[in-house]
Structure formats: structure tokens, C-alpha cells
Design a protein that fits this description.
2 helices; single chain; about 20% helix
């Protein structure tokens, strides 16, 4: 995601994650070699803020770390916030 609102700390080589929007979903792809990158400052608080902005317009924010998927709740700011895993897809 290229945005003038994202600072240089969001460069994927530094943040170890990439962000993109597709419809109502904001997706964060975390480098599996740095699985906790999204939980650290300044990213955790910024992601919670992005989730709040997305929710206000009917969207949501999802974090993918390898095979793990997390939905970021707007109130879940900070690295100690509880996680809420996205539901597993229904078996076909």
C-alpha cells in the first residue's frame, strides 16, 4: 500500500509487512520470519487505528502471518491486546 499517510517506518523492508486494500478489507501480510512485527510499536497502535477507520466505513482489517489469520479489532490497540482469530473457512 502506497500512502502519503504512511511514514518511512512502513517500508516493507523495515516493517516486515505489506498492506493493501481490496474492497472493504484491508489486508496485512506479515513476513513469516518476523511473525510478531505487527504486534510491536508503532505498528500495533497504527493497525488498531486503521481498523477503526475501516470499521467506520463498513470495512475490516485482517492480518496474515503464514497460515494464521487475525482480525484486528478497533479497540485492540497495543501489543498486549488480546487476539481474535478469524473464523476458519468452512470445509467444502
Amino acid at each position: 500500500m502506497k500512502s502519503s499517510t504512511l511514514g518511512p517506518e512502513w517500508d516493507p523492508t523495515l516493517a516486515h509487512m505489506m498492506i493493501y486494500e481490496q474492497g472493504p478489507q484491508t489486508t496485512v501480510l506479515v513476513d513469516p520470519d518476523f511473525p510478531d512485527a505487527w504486534r510491536r510499536a508503532p505498528y500495533a497502535g497504527a493497525l488498531a487505528h486503521m481498523a477503526a477507520e475501516a470499521e467506520a466505513s463498513g470495512g475490516y482489517l485482517i492480518v496474515f502471518v503464514g497460515d494464521d489469520v487475525f482480525k484486528i479489532e478497533p479497540a485492540a490497540a497495543g501489543p498486549a491486546a488480546p487476539d481474535r482469530r478469524a473464523p476458519e473457512p468452512a470445509a467444502a
